[in-house]
Automatic annotation (TrEMBL):
Keyword Kinase (UniProt): yes
Pfam families referenced in this protein's UniProt entry, alphabetically: His_kinase
Main location: membrane
Gene Ontology MF term list: kinase activity
UniProt-listed InterPro entries: Bact_2-comp_sensor_kinase, HAMP_dom, HATPase_C_sf, Sig_transdc_His_kin_internal
UniProt-annotated location(s): Cell membrane
Residues passing through the membrane, by range: 14-37, 285-306
Start and end residues of each HAMP domain: 309-362
Membrane topology of this protein: Multi-pass membrane protein
Name of the protein in its database record: Sensor histidine kinase YesM
Length: 587
Protein backbone atom coordinates (compact mmCIF):
# COMPACT_ATOMS: atom_id res chain seq x y z
CA UNK A 1 0.00 0.00 0.00
CA UNK A 2 2.80 2.43 0.89
CA UNK A 3 4.73 1.75 -2.34
CA UNK A 4 1.50 2.14 -4.30
CA UNK A 5 0.85 5.62 -2.85
CA UNK A 6 4.40 6.72 -3.54
CA UNK A 7 3.58 6.89 -7.28
CA UNK A 8 2.13 10.32 -7.92
CA UNK A 9 -0.25 9.39 -10.74
CA UNK A 10 -1.80 6.58 -8.70
CA UNK A 11 -2.03 8.71 -5.58
CA UNK A 12 -4.07 11.35 -7.42
CA UNK A 13 -6.26 8.69 -9.02
CA UNK A 14 -6.88 7.05 -5.67
CA UNK A 15 -7.96 10.33 -4.08
CA UNK A 16 -10.32 10.99 -7.01
CA UNK A 17 -11.81 7.49 -6.68
CA UNK A 18 -12.29 7.95 -2.92
CA UNK A 19 -14.18 11.22 -3.46
CA UNK A 20 -16.30 9.67 -6.21
CA UNK A 21 -17.19 6.52 -4.25
CA UNK A 22 -18.02 8.50 -1.10
CA UNK A 23 -20.21 10.89 -3.10
CA UNK A 24 -22.09 8.03 -4.75
CA UNK A 25 -22.42 6.17 -1.43
CA UNK A 26 -23.71 9.18 0.46
CA UNK A 27 -26.13 10.03 -2.35
CA UNK A 28 -27.50 6.50 -2.41
CA UNK A 29 -27.75 6.49 1.39
CA UNK A 30 -29.62 9.78 1.50
CA UNK A 31 -31.98 8.71 -1.30
CA UNK A 32 -32.64 5.36 0.39
CA UNK A 33 -33.36 6.99 3.75
CA UNK A 34 -35.59 9.60 2.09
CA UNK A 35 -37.58 6.86 0.33
CA UNK A 36 -37.96 4.89 3.55
CA UNK A 37 -38.97 8.01 5.49
CA UNK A 38 -41.51 8.85 2.81
CA UNK A 39 -42.86 5.29 3.03
CA UNK A 40 -43.13 5.46 6.82
CA UNK A 41 -44.90 8.83 6.60
CA UNK A 42 -47.22 7.35 3.97
CA UNK A 43 -47.97 4.40 6.25
CA UNK A 44 -48.79 6.78 9.11
CA UNK A 45 -50.97 8.82 6.75
CA UNK A 46 -52.87 5.68 5.76
CA UNK A 47 -53.29 4.77 9.42
CA UNK A 48 -54.67 8.25 10.13
CA UNK A 49 -57.08 7.94 7.19
CA UNK A 50 -58.26 4.56 8.49
CA UNK A 51 -58.74 5.98 11.98
CA UNK A 52 -60.72 8.94 10.61
CA UNK A 53 -62.86 6.56 8.57
CA UNK A 54 -63.51 4.61 11.77
CA UNK A 55 -64.67 7.80 13.53
CA UNK A 56 -66.93 8.71 10.65
CA UNK A 57 -68.41 5.21 10.63
CA UNK A 58 -69.08 5.36 14.36
CA UNK A 59 -70.79 8.72 13.99
CA UNK A 60 -72.87 7.36 11.12
CA UNK A 61 -73.86 4.30 13.21
CA UNK A 62 -74.99 6.60 16.02
CA UNK A 63 -76.92 8.79 13.56
CA UNK A 64 -78.66 5.68 12.24
CA UNK A 65 -79.52 4.56 15.81
CA UNK A 66 -80.94 8.00 16.66
CA UNK A 67 -82.97 8.11 13.47
CA UNK A 68 -84.34 4.65 14.23
CA UNK A 69 -85.25 5.77 17.75
CA UNK A 70 -87.11 8.80 16.42
CA UNK A 71 -89.17 6.48 14.27
CA UNK A 72 -89.83 4.40 17.37
CA UNK A 73 -91.22 7.45 19.21
CA UNK A 74 -93.54 8.34 16.33
CA UNK A 75 -94.78 4.79 15.92
CA UNK A 76 -95.52 4.22 19.63
CA UNK A 77 -98.37 6.41 20.95
CA UNK A 78 -97.70 5.56 24.58
CA UNK A 79 -94.02 6.47 24.22
CA UNK A 80 -95.04 9.67 22.45
CA UNK A 81 -97.38 10.59 25.28
CA UNK A 82 -94.64 10.00 27.87
CA UNK A 83 -92.20 12.07 25.80
CA UNK A 84 -94.74 14.91 25.73
CA UNK A 85 -95.07 14.61 29.49
CA UNK A 86 -91.26 14.87 29.81
CA UNK A 87 -91.57 18.45 28.53
CA UNK A 88 -92.78 19.52 32.00
CA UNK A 89 -90.45 21.96 33.74
CA UNK A 90 -90.19 19.86 36.93
CA UNK A 91 -90.11 16.27 38.07
CA UNK A 92 -93.48 16.68 39.77
CA UNK A 93 -95.04 18.05 36.61
CA UNK A 94 -93.61 15.15 34.62
CA UNK A 95 -94.89 12.49 37.05
CA UNK A 96 -98.35 14.13 37.33
CA UNK A 97 -98.72 14.43 33.60
CA UNK A 98 -97.73 10.81 32.86
CA UNK A 99 -100.14 9.53 35.59
CA UNK A 100 -102.92 11.64 34.15
CA UNK A 101 -102.32 10.21 30.67
CA UNK A 102 -101.94 6.63 31.83
CA UNK A 103 -104.63 3.99 31.34
CA UNK A 104 -105.14 1.03 33.60
CA UNK A 105 -105.63 -1.31 30.66
CA UNK A 106 -102.22 -0.51 29.15
CA UNK A 107 -98.68 -0.83 30.55
CA UNK A 108 -97.01 2.40 31.67
CA UNK A 109 -94.10 3.35 29.35
CA UNK A 110 -91.24 5.56 30.63
CA UNK A 111 -89.41 7.80 28.16
CA UNK A 112 -86.13 7.85 30.23
CA UNK A 113 -86.16 4.06 30.69
CA UNK A 114 -86.82 3.54 27.00
CA UNK A 115 -83.92 5.84 26.15
CA UNK A 116 -81.60 3.83 28.38
CA UNK A 117 -82.72 0.54 26.85
CA UNK A 118 -82.74 1.47 23.19
CA UNK A 119 -80.09 4.18 23.00
CA UNK A 120 -77.54 4.00 25.80
CA UNK A 121 -77.25 0.23 25.86
CA UNK A 122 -77.75 -0.17 22.17
CA UNK A 123 -75.05 2.43 21.36
CA UNK A 124 -72.68 0.77 23.86
CA UNK A 125 -72.42 3.87 26.00
CA UNK A 126 -71.51 6.32 23.25
CA UNK A 127 -74.73 8.39 23.70
CA UNK A 128 -74.30 9.84 27.22
CA UNK A 129 -76.96 12.59 27.34
CA UNK A 130 -80.42 13.09 25.83
CA UNK A 131 -82.21 16.39 26.37
CA UNK A 132 -85.67 17.64 25.38
CA UNK A 133 -85.96 21.41 24.86
CA UNK A 134 -88.65 24.03 24.57
CA UNK A 135 -87.92 27.61 23.64
CA UNK A 136 -87.07 28.57 27.23
CA UNK A 137 -85.72 25.52 29.04
CA UNK A 138 -84.63 21.93 28.64
CA UNK A 139 -84.89 18.65 30.54
CA UNK A 140 -81.99 16.16 30.32
CA UNK A 141 -81.26 12.53 31.07
CA UNK A 142 -77.55 11.93 31.68
CA UNK A 143 -75.79 8.55 31.96
CA UNK A 144 -72.60 7.84 33.86
CA UNK A 145 -69.90 5.39 32.73
CA UNK A 146 -71.70 2.69 34.70
CA UNK A 147 -75.03 3.38 32.95
CA UNK A 148 -76.66 5.10 35.99
CA UNK A 149 -79.02 7.79 34.84
CA UNK A 150 -79.64 11.20 36.40
CA UNK A 151 -82.29 13.78 35.57
CA UNK A 152 -82.23 17.57 35.20
CA UNK A 153 -85.42 19.57 34.72
CA UNK A 154 -86.10 23.17 33.90
CA UNK A 155 -82.52 24.13 33.00
CA UNK A 156 -82.21 27.21 30.78
CA UNK A 157 -81.14 26.44 27.21
CA UNK A 158 -78.03 28.53 27.86
CA UNK A 159 -77.00 26.32 30.76
CA UNK A 160 -73.47 24.87 30.67
CA UNK A 161 -74.93 21.36 30.51
CA UNK A 162 -76.12 22.13 26.99
CA UNK A 163 -72.91 23.75 25.69
CA UNK A 164 -72.11 22.37 22.24
CA UNK A 165 -68.32 21.72 22.47
CA UNK A 166 -66.17 19.02 20.96
CA UNK A 167 -64.56 18.43 24.35
CA UNK A 168 -67.84 16.93 25.53
CA UNK A 169 -69.01 15.32 22.33
CA UNK A 170 -71.11 15.67 19.22
CA UNK A 171 -74.76 16.77 19.36
CA UNK A 172 -77.47 15.39 17.08
CA UNK A 173 -80.54 17.70 16.96
CA UNK A 174 -83.96 16.32 16.05
CA UNK A 175 -87.27 18.23 15.97
CA UNK A 176 -90.08 16.57 17.92
CA UNK A 177 -93.58 17.04 16.49
CA UNK A 178 -96.96 15.45 17.21
CA UNK A 179 -98.81 14.13 14.20
CA UNK A 180 -102.07 14.04 16.15
CA UNK A 181 -101.92 17.82 16.50
CA UNK A 182 -101.30 18.48 12.84
CA UNK A 183 -97.52 18.03 12.99
CA UNK A 184 -97.30 20.67 15.68
CA UNK A 185 -93.71 21.08 16.87
CA UNK A 186 -93.42 20.11 20.53
CA UNK A 187 -89.72 20.76 21.05
CA UNK A 188 -86.23 19.64 20.13
CA UNK A 189 -84.41 16.45 21.08
CA UNK A 190 -80.63 16.70 21.46
CA UNK A 191 -78.48 13.55 21.59
CA UNK A 192 -74.93 13.99 22.94
CA UNK A 193 -72.40 11.42 21.60
CA UNK A 194 -69.37 11.31 23.91
CA UNK A 195 -66.03 12.23 22.32
CA UNK A 196 -64.25 9.93 24.78
CA UNK A 197 -66.26 6.96 23.59
CA UNK A 198 -66.00 7.82 19.88
CA UNK A 199 -62.22 8.29 19.84
CA UNK A 200 -61.49 5.50 22.30
CA UNK A 201 -61.81 2.87 19.54
CA UNK A 202 -58.98 4.39 17.42
CA UNK A 203 -56.33 4.89 20.07
CA UNK A 204 -54.51 1.73 18.97
CA UNK A 205 -53.82 3.10 15.49
CA UNK A 206 -50.21 4.08 14.80
CA UNK A 207 -50.68 7.54 13.33
CA UNK A 208 -48.51 9.62 15.67
CA UNK A 209 -50.46 12.25 17.61
CA UNK A 210 -54.04 13.09 16.68
CA UNK A 211 -56.77 15.50 17.71
CA UNK A 212 -60.24 16.69 16.70
CA UNK A 213 -60.36 20.48 16.15
CA UNK A 214 -63.61 22.46 15.99
CA UNK A 215 -64.06 25.72 14.01
CA UNK A 216 -64.14 27.62 17.29
CA UNK A 217 -60.66 26.41 18.15
CA UNK A 218 -61.57 23.74 20.68
CA UNK A 219 -59.16 20.81 20.55
CA UNK A 220 -59.88 17.31 21.72
CA UNK A 221 -56.61 15.40 22.14
CA UNK A 222 -56.87 11.75 21.16
CA UNK A 223 -54.71 9.46 23.29
CA UNK A 224 -52.37 10.17 26.17
CA UNK A 225 -48.99 11.81 26.41
CA UNK A 226 -49.91 15.07 24.69
CA UNK A 227 -49.16 18.50 26.16
CA UNK A 228 -49.80 22.17 25.48
CA UNK A 229 -47.14 22.21 22.75
CA UNK A 230 -49.11 19.55 20.92
CA UNK A 231 -52.22 21.76 20.97
CA UNK A 232 -50.24 24.57 19.39
CA UNK A 233 -49.06 22.26 16.62
CA UNK A 234 -52.64 21.16 15.96
CA UNK A 235 -53.71 24.81 15.72
CA UNK A 236 -50.89 25.53 13.25
CA UNK A 237 -51.80 22.50 11.15
CA UNK A 238 -55.48 23.51 11.07
CA UNK A 239 -54.65 27.11 10.23
CA UNK A 240 -52.34 26.00 7.40
CA UNK A 241 -55.34 25.35 5.20
CA UNK A 242 -53.80 22.38 3.34
CA UNK A 243 -54.81 18.76 3.65
CA UNK A 244 -51.20 17.74 4.42
CA UNK A 245 -47.76 19.29 4.64
CA UNK A 246 -44.92 20.17 6.98
CA UNK A 247 -44.63 22.59 9.86
CA UNK A 248 -41.54 23.33 11.93
CA UNK A 249 -41.30 22.74 15.66
CA UNK A 250 -37.80 24.17 15.74
CA UNK A 251 -34.44 23.90 14.04
CA UNK A 252 -34.12 20.45 12.37
CA UNK A 253 -37.46 19.34 13.88
CA UNK A 254 -39.90 19.04 10.96
CA UNK A 255 -43.45 17.90 11.70
CA UNK A 256 -45.66 16.25 9.10
CA UNK A 257 -49.41 16.81 9.39
CA UNK A 258 -52.50 15.54 7.63
CA UNK A 259 -56.09 16.78 8.09
CA UNK A 260 -59.44 15.21 7.27
CA UNK A 261 -62.64 17.33 7.38
CA UNK A 262 -65.67 15.52 8.76
CA UNK A 263 -68.77 15.12 6.65
CA UNK A 264 -70.94 14.44 9.71
CA UNK A 265 -70.02 17.34 11.97
CA UNK A 266 -68.16 20.59 11.65
CA UNK A 267 -64.67 19.51 12.82
CA UNK A 268 -61.34 18.36 11.42
CA UNK A 269 -59.41 15.24 12.30
CA UNK A 270 -55.72 16.23 12.49
CA UNK A 271 -52.73 13.86 12.77
CA UNK A 272 -49.14 15.08 13.27
CA UNK A 273 -45.97 12.99 12.94
CA UNK A 274 -42.66 14.08 14.43
CA UNK A 275 -40.10 13.02 11.81
CA UNK A 276 -37.23 13.02 14.30
CA UNK A 277 -39.24 10.66 16.51
CA UNK A 278 -40.03 8.52 13.45
CA UNK A 279 -36.32 8.29 12.64
CA UNK A 280 -35.51 7.26 16.22
CA UNK A 281 -38.16 4.55 16.08
CA UNK A 282 -36.52 3.05 12.96
CA UNK A 283 -32.94 3.72 14.03
CA UNK A 284 -31.98 0.04 13.82
CA UNK A 285 -33.08 -0.28 10.19
CA UNK A 286 -31.35 2.98 9.24
CA UNK A 287 -28.17 1.81 10.98
CA UNK A 288 -28.32 -1.46 9.02
CA UNK A 289 -28.65 0.46 5.74
CA UNK A 290 -25.75 2.68 6.73
CA UNK A 291 -23.56 -0.34 7.52
CA UNK A 292 -24.46 -1.99 4.19
CA UNK A 293 -23.60 1.15 2.22
CA UNK A 294 -20.40 1.64 4.24
CA UNK A 295 -19.38 -1.97 3.63
CA UNK A 296 -20.10 -1.60 -0.08
CA UNK A 297 -18.03 1.60 -0.25
CA UNK A 298 -15.11 -0.04 1.54
CA UNK A 299 -15.33 -3.10 -0.75
CA UNK A 300 -15.30 -0.92 -3.87
CA UNK A 301 -12.34 1.06 -2.56
CA UNK A 302 -10.46 -2.14 -1.74
CA UNK A 303 -11.13 -3.42 -5.26
CA UNK A 304 -9.84 -0.13 -6.68
CA UNK A 305 -6.75 -0.35 -4.48
CA UNK A 306 -6.15 -3.94 -5.61
CA UNK A 307 -6.38 -3.05 -9.32
CA UNK A 308 -4.28 0.09 -9.04
CA UNK A 309 -1.66 -1.73 -6.98
CA UNK A 310 -1.62 -4.47 -9.60
CA UNK A 311 -1.09 -1.84 -12.31
CA UNK A 312 1.74 -0.36 -10.25
CA UNK A 313 3.37 -3.77 -9.93
CA UNK A 314 2.93 -4.33 -13.66
CA UNK A 315 4.64 -1.02 -14.40
CA UNK A 316 7.47 -2.01 -12.10
CA UNK A 317 7.72 -5.33 -13.93
CA UNK A 318 8.04 -3.57 -17.29
CA UNK A 319 10.84 -1.37 -15.96
CA UNK A 320 12.56 -4.41 -14.49
CA UNK A 321 12.28 -6.32 -17.80
CA UNK A 322 13.84 -3.43 -19.68
CA UNK A 323 16.71 -3.46 -17.20
CA UNK A 324 17.22 -7.20 -17.71
CA UNK A 325 17.36 -6.73 -21.49
CA UNK A 326 20.00 -4.05 -21.07
CA UNK A 327 22.20 -6.54 -19.23
CA UNK A 328 21.53 -9.30 -21.84
CA UNK A 329 19.72 -11.40 -19.24
CA UNK A 330 17.23 -13.52 -21.18
CA UNK A 331 16.36 -15.87 -18.34
CA UNK A 332 12.67 -16.89 -18.72
CA UNK A 333 10.47 -14.98 -16.33
CA UNK A 334 7.04 -15.82 -14.93
CA UNK A 335 4.47 -14.82 -17.59
CA UNK A 336 2.15 -11.95 -16.69
CA UNK A 337 -1.37 -11.36 -17.90
CA UNK A 338 -1.74 -8.40 -20.22
CA UNK A 339 -4.21 -5.62 -19.48
CA UNK A 340 -6.13 -3.70 -22.10
CA UNK A 341 -4.37 -0.42 -21.40
CA UNK A 342 -1.11 1.42 -22.13
CA UNK A 343 0.86 -0.91 -19.89
CA UNK A 344 -0.36 -3.90 -21.86
CA UNK A 345 0.76 -2.27 -25.12
CA UNK A 346 4.19 -1.58 -23.68
CA UNK A 347 4.45 -5.15 -22.37
CA UNK A 348 3.54 -6.63 -25.75
CA UNK A 349 6.07 -4.46 -27.55
CA UNK A 350 8.68 -5.42 -24.99
CA UNK A 351 7.96 -9.11 -25.50
CA UNK A 352 8.32 -8.68 -29.27
CA UNK A 353 11.69 -7.05 -28.75
CA UNK A 354 12.84 -9.89 -26.49
CA UNK A 355 11.72 -12.46 -29.08
CA UNK A 356 13.78 -10.74 -31.76
CA UNK A 357 16.81 -10.75 -29.52
CA UNK A 358 16.19 -14.34 -28.56
CA UNK A 359 16.69 -15.45 -32.17
CA UNK A 360 20.40 -14.86 -31.76
CA UNK A 361 20.70 -17.58 -29.10
CA UNK A 362 18.53 -20.27 -30.66
CA UNK A 363 21.45 -22.11 -32.26
CA UNK A 364 22.22 -23.75 -28.96
CA UNK A 365 18.75 -25.25 -28.76
CA UNK A 366 18.81 -26.34 -32.41
CA UNK A 367 22.06 -28.20 -31.81
CA UNK A 368 20.48 -30.01 -28.89
CA UNK A 369 17.55 -31.05 -31.08
CA UNK A 370 19.91 -32.35 -33.76
CA UNK A 371 21.74 -34.34 -31.13
CA UNK A 372 18.49 -35.97 -29.94
CA UNK A 373 17.56 -36.81 -33.55
CA UNK A 374 20.96 -38.47 -34.06
CA UNK A 375 20.47 -40.55 -30.93
CA UNK A 376 17.03 -41.67 -32.15
CA UNK A 377 18.48 -42.73 -35.50
CA UNK A 378 21.22 -44.68 -33.74
CA UNK A 379 18.63 -46.52 -31.71
CA UNK A 380 16.67 -47.31 -34.85
CA UNK A 381 19.77 -48.61 -36.62
CA UNK A 382 20.29 -51.07 -33.79
CA UNK A 383 16.97 -52.66 -34.72
CA UNK A 384 17.14 -52.74 -38.52
CA UNK A 385 20.07 -55.22 -39.06
CA UNK A 386 18.66 -57.66 -36.57
CA UNK A 387 15.25 -57.53 -38.24
CA UNK A 388 16.76 -57.85 -41.72
CA UNK A 389 18.69 -60.95 -40.71
CA UNK A 390 15.63 -62.70 -39.24
CA UNK A 391 13.41 -61.81 -42.20
CA UNK A 392 15.87 -63.04 -44.79
CA UNK A 393 16.29 -66.26 -42.86
CA UNK A 394 12.53 -66.78 -42.98
CA UNK A 395 12.38 -66.25 -46.72
CA UNK A 396 15.42 -68.47 -47.30
CA UNK A 397 13.97 -71.36 -45.30
CA UNK A 398 10.61 -71.09 -47.02
CA UNK A 399 12.09 -70.91 -50.47
CA UNK A 400 14.15 -74.03 -49.85
CA UNK A 401 11.09 -75.96 -48.80
CA UNK A 402 8.29 -74.71 -51.11
CA UNK A 403 9.79 -73.11 -54.21
CA UNK A 404 6.42 -71.53 -55.13
CA UNK A 405 4.70 -68.12 -55.61
CA UNK A 406 4.34 -67.58 -51.89
CA UNK A 407 8.03 -66.87 -51.83
CA UNK A 408 7.58 -64.12 -54.41
CA UNK A 409 4.77 -62.56 -52.37
CA UNK A 410 6.88 -62.61 -49.26
CA UNK A 411 9.77 -60.98 -51.07
CA UNK A 412 7.40 -58.30 -52.46
CA UNK A 413 6.07 -57.57 -48.98
CA UNK A 414 9.60 -57.39 -47.63
CA UNK A 415 10.61 -55.02 -50.41
CA UNK A 416 7.69 -52.71 -49.66
CA UNK A 417 8.54 -52.85 -45.98
CA UNK A 418 12.18 -51.88 -46.54
CA UNK A 419 11.29 -49.14 -48.95
CA UNK A 420 9.34 -47.54 -46.10
CA UNK A 421 12.16 -48.16 -43.65
CA UNK A 422 14.88 -46.51 -45.74
CA UNK A 423 12.85 -43.35 -46.32
CA UNK A 424 14.48 -40.34 -44.70
CA UNK A 425 11.53 -39.03 -42.65
CA UNK A 426 11.64 -40.20 -39.05
CA UNK A 427 8.22 -38.85 -38.03
CA UNK A 428 5.16 -40.43 -39.58
CA UNK A 429 1.50 -40.89 -38.65
CA UNK A 430 0.05 -43.72 -36.59
CA UNK A 431 -1.70 -44.92 -39.78
CA UNK A 432 1.65 -45.26 -41.60
CA UNK A 433 3.23 -47.02 -38.63
CA UNK A 434 0.31 -49.49 -38.57
CA UNK A 435 0.88 -50.21 -42.28
CA UNK A 436 4.52 -51.11 -41.52
CA UNK A 437 3.36 -53.37 -38.69
CA UNK A 438 0.79 -55.09 -40.93
CA UNK A 439 3.45 -55.80 -43.59
CA UNK A 440 5.59 -57.46 -40.94
CA UNK A 441 2.62 -59.50 -39.65
CA UNK A 442 1.81 -60.60 -43.21
CA UNK A 443 5.35 -61.96 -43.48
CA UNK A 444 4.78 -63.81 -40.21
CA UNK A 445 1.55 -65.25 -41.60
CA UNK A 446 3.57 -66.46 -44.59
CA UNK A 447 6.07 -68.10 -42.26
CA UNK A 448 3.45 -69.77 -40.07
CA UNK A 449 0.49 -70.60 -42.32
CA UNK A 450 -2.59 -71.86 -40.49
CA UNK A 451 -0.75 -71.22 -37.20
CA UNK A 452 -0.69 -67.42 -36.83
CA UNK A 453 -3.50 -64.79 -37.07
CA UNK A 454 -3.64 -61.07 -36.32
CA UNK A 455 -6.26 -58.31 -35.88
CA UNK A 456 -5.90 -54.51 -35.99
CA UNK A 457 -8.75 -52.48 -34.41
CA UNK A 458 -7.75 -48.81 -34.15
CA UNK A 459 -10.24 -45.92 -34.06
CA UNK A 460 -9.91 -43.36 -36.91
CA UNK A 461 -9.20 -40.52 -34.45
CA UNK A 462 -5.77 -42.05 -33.72
CA UNK A 463 -4.62 -42.48 -37.31
CA UNK A 464 -3.49 -38.88 -37.90
CA UNK A 465 -1.44 -38.62 -34.70
CA UNK A 466 2.30 -38.11 -35.48
CA UNK A 467 4.77 -40.62 -34.06
CA UNK A 468 8.31 -41.93 -34.54
CA UNK A 469 8.95 -44.48 -37.21
CA UNK A 470 9.22 -48.27 -36.77
CA UNK A 471 8.43 -48.83 -33.08
CA UNK A 472 5.44 -51.19 -33.30
CA UNK A 473 7.33 -53.96 -35.17
CA UNK A 474 9.80 -54.62 -32.29
CA UNK A 475 6.86 -55.14 -29.93
CA UNK A 476 5.39 -57.76 -32.30
CA UNK A 477 8.82 -59.32 -32.83
CA UNK A 478 9.13 -59.90 -29.06
CA UNK A 479 6.01 -62.06 -29.31
CA UNK A 480 7.56 -64.30 -32.00
CA UNK A 481 10.85 -64.56 -30.10
CA UNK A 482 9.58 -65.12 -26.56
CA UNK A 483 5.91 -66.10 -26.69
CA UNK A 484 5.11 -67.76 -30.01
CA UNK A 485 4.39 -71.51 -29.96
CA UNK A 486 4.87 -73.08 -33.41
CA UNK A 487 3.13 -76.26 -32.32
CA UNK A 488 0.03 -74.37 -31.25
CA UNK A 489 -2.77 -74.22 -33.86
CA UNK A 490 -3.96 -70.73 -32.92
CA UNK A 491 -1.37 -68.00 -32.23
CA UNK A 492 -3.06 -64.56 -32.13
CA UNK A 493 -1.69 -61.02 -32.10
CA UNK A 494 -4.20 -58.17 -31.58
CA UNK A 495 -3.69 -54.39 -31.84
CA UNK A 496 -6.42 -52.14 -30.33
CA UNK A 497 -6.52 -48.35 -30.26
CA UNK A 498 -9.11 -45.92 -28.86
CA UNK A 499 -9.58 -42.37 -27.61
CA UNK A 500 -10.10 -41.76 -23.88
CA UNK A 501 -11.11 -38.53 -22.14
CA UNK A 502 -7.67 -36.88 -22.03
CA UNK A 503 -5.35 -39.36 -23.76
CA UNK A 504 -5.05 -41.97 -26.51
CA UNK A 505 -4.50 -45.66 -25.81
CA UNK A 506 -2.73 -48.28 -27.96
CA UNK A 507 -2.86 -51.88 -26.77
CA UNK A 508 -0.77 -54.81 -28.12
CA UNK A 509 -1.89 -58.27 -26.95
CA UNK A 510 -0.95 -61.89 -27.73
CA UNK A 511 -1.93 -65.33 -26.45
CA UNK A 512 1.64 -66.63 -26.06
CA UNK A 513 3.52 -68.02 -23.08
CA UNK A 514 3.68 -64.83 -21.03
CA UNK A 515 6.59 -63.58 -18.89
CA UNK A 516 7.81 -65.03 -15.63
CA UNK A 517 6.99 -62.79 -12.64
CA UNK A 518 10.63 -62.12 -11.71
CA UNK A 519 11.52 -61.34 -15.32
CA UNK A 520 8.44 -59.09 -15.64
CA UNK A 521 9.51 -57.16 -12.54
CA UNK A 522 12.99 -56.63 -14.04
CA UNK A 523 11.56 -55.43 -17.37
CA UNK A 524 9.23 -52.96 -15.63
CA UNK A 525 12.11 -51.60 -13.56
CA UNK A 526 14.22 -51.13 -16.70
CA UNK A 527 11.43 -49.22 -18.46
CA UNK A 528 10.57 -46.99 -15.48
CA UNK A 529 14.22 -46.07 -14.74
CA UNK A 530 15.33 -45.78 -18.41
CA UNK A 531 18.18 -48.16 -17.53
CA UNK A 532 20.49 -48.63 -20.57
CA UNK A 533 23.12 -50.80 -18.80
CA UNK A 534 21.24 -54.05 -19.25
CA UNK A 535 21.85 -55.94 -22.50
CA UNK A 536 18.54 -57.77 -22.33
CA UNK A 537 15.23 -56.49 -23.81
CA UNK A 538 17.08 -54.20 -26.18
CA UNK A 539 14.10 -53.93 -28.55
CA UNK A 540 11.56 -52.99 -25.88
CA UNK A 541 14.01 -50.61 -24.18
CA UNK A 542 14.84 -48.85 -27.46
CA UNK A 543 11.14 -48.44 -28.28
CA UNK A 544 10.51 -46.91 -24.85
CA UNK A 545 13.50 -44.56 -25.21
CA UNK A 546 12.53 -43.35 -28.68
CA UNK A 547 8.91 -42.69 -27.70
CA UNK A 548 10.07 -40.91 -24.57
CA UNK A 549 12.36 -38.72 -26.70
CA UNK A 550 9.46 -37.83 -28.97
CA UNK A 551 6.52 -37.38 -26.56
CA UNK A 552 8.33 -36.42 -23.35
CA UNK A 553 6.96 -37.12 -19.87
CA UNK A 554 3.35 -37.22 -21.04
CA UNK A 555 3.93 -40.65 -22.59
CA UNK A 556 3.89 -43.91 -20.61
CA UNK A 557 4.15 -47.66 -21.30
CA UNK A 558 3.01 -50.61 -19.21
CA UNK A 559 3.68 -54.33 -19.71
CA UNK A 560 1.72 -57.09 -17.98
CA UNK A 561 0.56 -60.71 -18.39
CA UNK A 562 -2.97 -61.43 -19.58
CA UNK A 563 -5.19 -63.41 -17.24
CA UNK A 564 -5.72 -66.27 -19.71
CA UNK A 565 -2.42 -66.31 -21.63
CA UNK A 566 0.12 -64.07 -23.27
CA UNK A 567 1.36 -60.53 -22.73
CA UNK A 568 -0.32 -57.12 -23.02
CA UNK A 569 1.67 -53.94 -23.69
CA UNK A 570 -0.28 -50.68 -23.24
CA UNK A 571 0.90 -47.26 -24.48
CA UNK A 572 -0.71 -43.99 -23.26
CA UNK A 573 -0.18 -40.74 -25.17
CA UNK A 574 -1.50 -37.44 -23.80
CA UNK A 575 -3.86 -35.46 -26.06
CA UNK A 576 -2.20 -32.18 -25.14
CA UNK A 577 1.21 -33.48 -26.19
CA UNK A 578 -0.10 -34.80 -29.52
CA UNK A 579 -1.71 -31.43 -30.32
CA UNK A 580 1.55 -29.63 -29.68
CA UNK A 581 3.45 -32.18 -31.83
CA UNK A 582 0.94 -31.79 -34.66
CA UNK A 583 1.23 -28.00 -34.58
CA UNK A 584 5.01 -28.17 -34.59
CA UNK A 585 5.24 -30.72 -37.43
CA UNK A 586 2.35 -29.80 -39.69
CA UNK A 587 1.37 -26.24 -38.68
Amino acid sequence: MSSFLQIKIYRHKFIAYVVFVMTIGLTLGILTCAMLLNQWVGDARIEAANAFTGVENELQYDADRIEAYMQRIYSNHSLMDDTRSFLSSSVEGYLTSRLHNSQFSQPLISFPEDIKTYLYSWAQGEITQISLHTNQYGNAVRFTDNGIESFMFGLPNTDEAFNDTILKGFVYRKKLSDGALGSQELGELRFLVSSDQIFKSIQNYRFGKAAAVSPSGDIYLIGNGQDQDSKELFRLATANGRSHGYISKGLFKPIFFVTFPSTKFNFKFVSIIDLSMLIRQHARMLLTIFLIILTTMISVLLLIVYNMRDDARFLHRIIQSIGRVKTANFTPNRPARYRRNEYGMIARELDDMIQQLDKHIRNEYLLKLKQQETEMKALQNQINPHFLYNTLEVIRSTALVNQDRDTADAIATLGALYREIVKKENIISIASELELLQKYLEIMEFKYPERFYYQVNVEPTLLSIPTVKFWMQPLAENFFIHGFNANHEFNLYVVNGWEAEDHYVLEFMDNGRGIHSERLKTVRSTLSNNDDTSSKSIGLRNVNTRLHFFYGNSYSMEIENNEEAGVKITVWISKEVTENVQTADYG
